[in-house]
Amino acid sequence: MKFLKKIFLWLLFAAVLAGLFWIFFNKFIEKDRSLLSLSAAPAALDKPCNRPLKFAIGSVDPRFNITADQVKTIAVQAADIWNKASGRQLLEYDPNAKLQIKLVYDQRQRESDAADQLNADLENLSVQKTTLDKQYGGLTQKYDQSLADFKSNLADYQKKLDSYDQEVAKWNAQGGAPPPEYDKLTHERKDLDSELKNLQSEESDLKHLADQINGIAAKENNIVSNYNSQVSTFQSEYGGSQEFEKGVFNPSQGIDIYQFRAADDLRMTIAHELGHALGMQHVQNPKSIMYYLMQDQDLKNPAPTAEDMVELKSVCKLN
Ligand SMILES: [Zn+2]
């Protein structure tokens, strides 16, 4: 809504000052398109590379969870990548410099943070699942063994019971058992009763085990479906992945950083934007600092590629 209204007002404005319209509109486009359109900025620089291009740290949105001082340290490292490669002091930190590096928090970092949270949750879930799988496996094995024992004991009991019943039936047919047989049968009966009790207790243990196993399965289902719902919330909030600007250099506005995951990522992004500030344009190697996309760059040990160096030498007129 606000966006459309703006354009509408601009159109009105343009109707009055038709000639100025394009200037304003183009400015607006520039702001949004950033990098690509603004990378060719050597004209804004006073004698590029002849003296150090000074930079400062501007506002750092606290939601990035990084201090301005930490950003300064990382920015100095980023600047040194170019300084070292060229053997010249191309870039220099100066708290009063006009060129400021700012950390601007918006949907991009919000999404990135949410994705990191989701990844952390996934790792956590995976640990939980491993533990539950182990418990599940152990209990299932125990259950299978107990069930086999129970079945064998039950068959045993059944056999003894049948034999007892036959013996009783035999003596009854003869009008009753003599005292020694009667005592023996009474004793057997007691043993059978006690075995039945044991079987009942085994059966109840089995049921308890089954409940435990089902409980674990339910728990697993629960954490998995919980995670799935987090993923679908994430997808509905942030949608599919699209290329977006991690950072932007604009000759009049300085360097705005919008998103990074870790210090080395931030360092690479700042090195790229400082490259633009020096007047460098994009190069074609995905490993290059000046490649338009964060792709195959070596974040741990950042160094210019041959393509970066060709561009740097051309811009700075180095040999
Ligand atoms: Zn760029």
User: What is the CATH architecture descriptor of the largest domain?
Assistant: 3-Layer(aba) Sandwich
The total domain count is 3
Shape: rod-shaped
> Going across the major beta sheet, what is the strand order?
2-1-3-5-4
**Bound chemical compounds:** zinc ion
The number of distinct helices, counting runs of at least 4 residues, comes to 8
- Write the H/E string, N to C: HHHEHEEHHEEHH
Q: Report how far apart the termini are.
A: 53 Å
How many individual β-strands?
5
The CATH topology of the largest domain comes to Collagenase (Catalytic Domain)
What class do helices, strands and sheet pairing give?
A: alpha/beta
Percent helix, as a range, is: 55-70%
CATH class of the largest domain: Alpha Beta
**What is the mean pLDDT?**
85
Main sheet properties: 5 strands, mixed
Percentage of β-strand residues: 5-15%
Describe the structure concisely:
With 319 residues, the protein is α/β, with parallel strands linked by helices. It has helices at 2-16, 18-33, 35-38, 68-86, 107-173, 179-238, 263-278, 306-316; strands spanning 53-60, 91-93, 99-103, 247-250, 254-257. The structure holds zinc ion.
